[in-house]
Structures are given as structure tokens and as C-alpha cells.
Design brief:
This protein is α/β, with parallel strands linked by helices and 498 residues long. Helix content is 44%, strand content 19%. The chain contains 16 helices and 16 strands. The chain has helices at residues 2-8, 14-39, 97-102, 105-114, 131-139, 141-156, 170-184, 243-262, 284-288, 311-319, 351-358, 366-377, 381-387, 393-413, 437-445, 461-497, and strands at residues 46-54, 59-67, 78-84, 124-129, 161-167, 196-200, 204-209, 221-226, 229-239, 268-271, 279-283, 302-307, 346-350, 424-426, 429-430, 433-434. The N and C termini lie close together (11 Å). Bound molecules: guanosine-5'-triphosphate (GTP) and calcium ion. Residues 55, 130, 201, 350 line the site of calcium ion. Its main location: membrane.
């Protein structure tokens, strides 16, 4: 009897089991709740950054956003908003530096609206100026300092975290453009190849890629360690070879040769890169007002710029702006600049895209591209204007020149051939974000691309929650089984006693 009495009062007596099960269930619920809350992506927690691209032709304000807890993952930063500053680039304010800072107001007010107010104080704002300001600094350093002071003063008046306004180097411009396109294409953490970057601005152009050959000149080489991979990049920025400055170089050369041929001041510049019927009066200083060229003194202040619309003559004239005679290395692009053979796929953006996209030349082979362009250049100006009444006349008149310049730069300059022409992708955006140097610049300055790959979580968030849920359910079922088992054995024991 004594022995049986002990059995009935065992620790698995019903109320105790129920209490224990309840405690465990509550414990599991708390565990699941905590892990769900702990790991839930907080959708509202976005961080922001602002970069101003103070280019030679105009300034753009880019606002980027990224989920706060994922800032070290590749491809997480996206462009939230962009604003084009009215008017020309900041270098055009050399005679009125105050105007440069004031010109940013509308876009910066817009940035205040776009970014939640509680994030303003921690949102970094950077301004990077490119080739227009490099040229102004060469011409007049005091004026360029004043313009930079003016934009810095203006940016400091906003509630963001001001991080500086400076002229970035050509190497930085090329390298950060490369980082941008490869970050957005999510190439950086994969073993696959990277995308070269081709940027054509108004005053300079950049080429950046991972070459197969040795880089023979120190100035053209940049090394990065990103997400645990080492990248050895070739980069070069050609100042004065953006499309606006190249047009000046090309017109300047034509004016010089016309002067030499006639030995009298030219009153007319017959230009094969402009459409037949195009006739525009220009001033001589307007062509030569750049440190990219030696000034040519002409008695005539104005000349008629007359279009001929001849593509092959246009290409001949453009070839004259590339010096391919002297090369102190095993191979060069032009002007004595070392360049290894182009290698891999390339993303060609900014004016490379604007021009080739306008002319529908982004997906043809090289021979077809040339044929189509020749036909376009010979189209009368009157017809071109009729066909595109809403396009700015300055842009419209220059597409023939610009596209011919682009082909010549890529083929004669960088040595692309009809075989690898297809490797050039003319792009404006990757996903939501514009291709350009600004994103790479911000990622670098905010240390958002770590040198070593960040530790990845064991499983994705969805999988983690499912796992926790199923695992908890399993424990619950096991506990219930244990409970019923003991209940049955207790009852059996009681029956046995009776
Ligand atoms: N056709 C066309 N041309 C454009 C457009 N936007 C800019 N451009 C021209 O394309 C060229 C390159 O523009 P951007 O890439 O903005 O040049 P930028 O940054 O001001 O100049 P850099 O300081 O040399 O980089 C300039 O000559 C611009 O005038 C556009 O929407 N359409
Ligand atoms: Ca630019």
C-alpha cells in the first residue's frame, strides 16, 4: 500500500504538469515574440545621404536612402530623388560667386521636404565639383576658391550634416563611377567579372576598368579592397575631352586651318559636323574662352558657323584633336596616355547615353551605327528641327558632332573594335539609380563598403521565423505528448490501485 501511495503522489501530478506546460508555452511564446521583434526589418528606419554633382554644364542633387540595418550589404543604397539645379554649372559663376551658392537653394529646400525631419541632423551632405571647376582653378584659382566658399556657405545653412565641398580629382571621378556601376549591378561580392565605366561629361571624360595587362603608369592605377576582394583598376580622366570642350577644340582647329589656308580672318566656318542649312553667328572669344586651347587672336569678333553635314569629313576633323603620335609606353590611348587593351563589358553613361539614345544607336553594331549616323548628319537642319520641335536647339544642333566624337573617342581613342563594340552598354540608370560617380563617392566616404565581407546571418529572415515557429511547435507537441503519457500512466496507476 505504501509503495502504491508514493506512485499516486509522484511529481507529474496533474496540476504540476499543467503548470509546467503553461510556463513552457508562455516561455516559447515570449521567445518567438522576442526573436520576431528583434529581427524584424524596421521598414521605417531608413537613413539618407545627399551628394551634389557640381558638373561643368550643370549641378544635380542626389538623395540616397538605405535601410539602416543593412548598410554594409551590396546594392542596398538606392537613389530616392534627384533635383536638377536651374542654370549652368557652378564654374559659370566665376564673376559672381554668390550666385553659385544661391543657385542651390531650390533643390536643397526640396531635399528638406524629401528627407524626414528627424533624420536631417545625421544626413551627410557632400558636394563634389568636376572638370568645369578644374578648368576654372587652372585659369583663376582665386575665383574657383570663392565659388567653392559660396557653395559651402550655402550648404552649411541647411539642417543636414555638412561634410565638405571640394573639387574631386579625375582619378576619383573615374574610380567612383566604376564603384557605382559595380555596386548597383551587385558585381562586388560575386566571383563574376566587373563592369568597366565610361563617363562622358561636358568638360572631361573618364575610362575605368580592370585590365588584363600590367598598368605601366602609376597615375593610372587605383587599388581597392571591397567585400574581401582586391581590385586593381586602370583609370584615366581626359580633361578638355568632355563633349562641350571637344567641340571647342575641334572648332578652334578648324578656325586655325581656315585662317592658314586663306591668310585672311575667317568670316565663315564651314563645319561638316553640323547639318546642311545650319547657319549660326558665333563670337570668336566664345570658342576660345577656355584654358583647353591657346587663344587665337582674330580681328573679326564674329563668324558664321555653317553646316555641311558630311559624316566622314566630320570624323576626319575630330581625329585632329587626338594626338596619337607620341607614346612613351608599350601602348597608349591618345595624348601620350598609357592604356591597356579594353577588357570586359563596359557601362557607358552620361553624354554617351544621352547622345546614343537620342539617335537610337544603343544596340547596333559598329558598321550599322556609322551608316545610320552618316544619314543623320546629312539630314537638312530644317528637317531636323521639324522632326524634333521640343528639343533644345543647342542639344539638337550638336548631336551629329557629339555622336561622331563618341565613335571616334571609343574607336580611335580607346581602341574598341567592331568585335567588342557589343560589350559597350549605353546606360542611364541601373535599377532606380543613375550611373555616375556620386553614389560611389558617398559609399566610400560613409565607409559603407567594408574591405572585408560582413558576416552573413545563418539563414534569411523569412527562413529564420519559419524555423523558430516550427521548432517551437515541435517542442509544444513533444510536451503535450509527455503530458498525455504521464496522465495515462498516472490513471493506469490509479486504476491499478483500485
Ligand atoms: N542631349 C542631352 N544632353 C545633355 C542632357 N543633359 C546633359 N547634357 C549634355 O551632356 C553633356 C554631359 O552632361 P553631364 O554628364 O551632366 O556633364 P557635367 O557633369 O556637367 O560635366 P563634367 O564636369 O565634365 O562631368 C553636357 O554637354 C551636357 O550639356 C540631356 O538631357 N540631353
Ligand atoms: Ca559629370
Amino acid at each position: 500500500m505504501d509503495e502504491q501511495g508514493v506512485k499516486v503522489k509522484n511529481p507529474w501530478h496533474r496540476p504540476v504538469v499543467i503548470f509546467l506546460a503553461a510556463v513552457i508555452i508562455v516561455g516559447i511564446i515570449i521567445m518567438v515574440a522576442i526573436s520576431v521583434v528583434q529581427n524584424k526589418p524596421l521598414h521605417q528606419k531608413y537613413k539618407y545621404g545627399i551628394v551634389l554633382d557640381a558638373g561643368s554644364s550643370h549641378t544635380s542633387v542626389f538623395i540616397y536612402e538605405w535601410p539602416a540595418e543593412k548598410e554594409n550589404n551590396t546594392g542596398m543604397v538606392r537613389q530616392k530623388h534627384t533635383c536638377n539645379v536651374q542654370g549652368k554649372g557652378i564654374s559659370s559663376y566665376s564673376a559672381n560667386p554668390q550666385g553659385a551658392g544661391a543657385s542651390l537653394q531650390l533643390c536643397m529646400e526640396e531635399a528638406k521636404q524629401k528627407i524626414p525631419a528627424h533624420r536631417h541632423p545625421e544626413t551627410p551632405v557632400y558636394l563634389g565639383a568636376t572638370a568645369g571647376m578644374r578648368l576654372l582653378r587652372m585659369e583663376n584659382e582665386e575665383a574657383s576658391d570663392k565659388v567653392l566658399d559660396s557653395v559651402a556657405h550655402s550648404l552649411k545653412s541647411y539642417p543636414f550634416s555638412y561634410q565638405g565641398a571640394r573639387i574631386i580629382s579625375g582619378q576619383e571621378e573615374g574610380a567612383f563611377g566604376w564603384i557605382t556601376v559595380n555596386y548597383l549591378s551587385k558585381n562586388l561580392r560575386k566571383p563574376t567579372g566587373t563592369l568597366g565605366a565610361l563617363d562622358l561629361g561636358g568638360a572631361s571624360t573618364q575610362i575605368t576598368f580592370v585590365p588584363q595587362q600590367n598598368i605601366e603608369s602609376y597615375d593610372n592605377s587605383i587599388d581597392f579592397r571591397l567585400y574581401g576582394n582586391d581590385y586593381h583598376l586602370y583609370t584615366h580622366s581626359f580633361l578638355c575631352y568632355g563633349q562641350d570642350q571637344a567641340l571647342k577644340l575641334s572648332m578652334g582647329k578648324k578656325l586655325e586651318s581656315t585662317l592658314k589656308a586663306d591668310e585672311t580672318d575667317p568670316t565663315e566656318l564651314r563645319d561638316p559636323c553640323f547639318h546642311p542649312g545650319y547657319n549660326f553667328t558665333r563670337t570668336v572669344p566664345n570658342v576660345f574662352n577656355t584654358p583647353c586651347m591657346k587663344e587665337m587672336k582674330l580681328a573679326n569678333e564674329t563668324f558664321f558657323h555653317v553646316g555641311l553635314g558630311n559624316w566622314s569629313q566630320c570624323q576626319q576633323s575630330i581625329r585632329k584633336v587626338f594626338n596619337t603620335i607620341n607614346c612613351p609606353y608599350s601602348r597608349c590611348s591618345f595624348n601620350g596616355v598609357f592604356q591597356p587593351s579594353v577588357y570586359g563589358d563596359f557601362g557607358a553613361f552620361s553624354a554617351f547615353f544621352f547622345v546614343m539614345d537620342f539617335l537610337n544607336l544603343t544596340s547596333d553594331n559598329l558598321a550599322t551605327t556609322k551608316q545610320k549616323l552618316a544619314a543623320y548628319c546629312s539630314t537638312p537642319w530644317k528637317k531636323i528641327v521639324e522632326n524634333h520641335p521640343n528639343i533644345k536647339e543647342k542639344y539638337l544642333s550638336e548631336y551629329c558632332f557629339s555622336a561622331t566624337y563618341i565613335l571616334t573617342l571609343l574607336e580611335d581613342g580607346y581602341k574598341f573594335t567592331s568585335n567588342n563594340w557589343k560589350d559597350i552598354r549605353f546606360i542611364k540608370k541601373i535599377g532606380d539609380s543613375d550611373a555616375g560617380w556620386t553614389l560611389g563617392y558617398m559609399l566610400n566616404l560613409t565607409n559603407m563598403i567594408p574591405a572585408e565581407a560582413p558576416d552573413t546571418s545563418l539563414m534569411p529572415y523569412g527562413g529564420y521565423v519559419t524555423f523558430m515557429f516550427l521548432f517551437s511547435l515541435l517542442i509544444l507537441v513533444l510536451l503535450l505528448l509527455v503530458y498525455f503519457y504521464f496522465r495515462r500512466s498516472t490513471r493506469t496507476a490509479q486504476k491499478d490501485i483500485i
